[in-house]
């Protein structure tokens, strides 16, 4: 475990919390950062850089570090030219097919970090980008939100170590920033001798599709075809997707929202790495009828249909125009709430809320890229909550960067201090 150079208990100061509150005009701005001398002229390749998530990551990287060389990669030269024009003179476009290993390896030859944002990751059979990164000795980050893919990436651990390559899987906003928030809540609890962390709940809310387009829509539909894995008192349990509804209070600007069980990789990684015996993850959206629609899909459509990427893609094409129309009304607010309960009965909460998912996911992913460039990550393939992935002393800096533009960011507070209508949320459901 990496040595600690910050206090064991990290509580953001009042000034820090206030600094997270941005006006609408300032919400997409970020504070520029200084990189170590040896990485000042680094280059980052963003796969899927012409899409919503990858493009947002490229913009955030350019804002954080204007002299960083950012290469956006995709299949469309026209979209690439538009993105390069938006980013400015220190960027370029590379036409890359991630299904072609030779194309991948050629693109990675002269870059320091590759960001894999070319989802969806569900149903992908290989970790081709990570394999190419290991072969070309290129640091790697992905924004994977699929359990099978994430642990397949983790299985390349020994190869990454042998090649001296640093890699982080699930390094976006959720999973990603949420993993680091959970790790800090657990660490603070253990440092205060609150006995043992017993229950960890990941709760997520996004208005509409979050403005992130067809890829997020496809991801949502594909997750409905996956049986949910959660942990109860150390035992793995399997549950129906989009079941187990809870009404969760996400605090100011979001309020109470219904959230439902989904199969997300941070559940297993947090259980195994942080040692919390009961872990679950839930997600909800708005308007409310989207949740009803998701529930109906799990009941009416066969699992085989929802696990077929080609069929789901046709479904996305059908729904996408309507989703975009509703997004214009619903907005794209996003919120993360992490709840940790300990054996002494005390609970702590972390909340991360932003006006725009498409902006905050890029800022969050860029924060992971900067951590890798600054030398936070050891050789190997790591989840964000592992100290070899994001060193303990680097977590505070990562969260500060990722939370720029948020209108509500708090860590390690009792629930009553962050809820709009403070009261016990115990509803008889213990996952």
Automatic annotation (TrEMBL):
Domain Saccharopine dehydrogenase NADP binding, chain residue ranges per copy: 44-166
SUPFAM superfamilies: NAD(P)-binding Rossmann-fold domains
Entry-linked Pfam families: Sacchrp_dh_NADP
Domain of life according to the entry: Eukaryota
InterPro entries registered for this protein in UniProt: NAD(P)-bd_dom_sf, Sacchrp_dh_NADP-bd
Protein's name in the database: Saccharopine dehydrogenase NADP binding domain-containing protein
Natural source organism: Acacia crassicarpa (northern wattle)
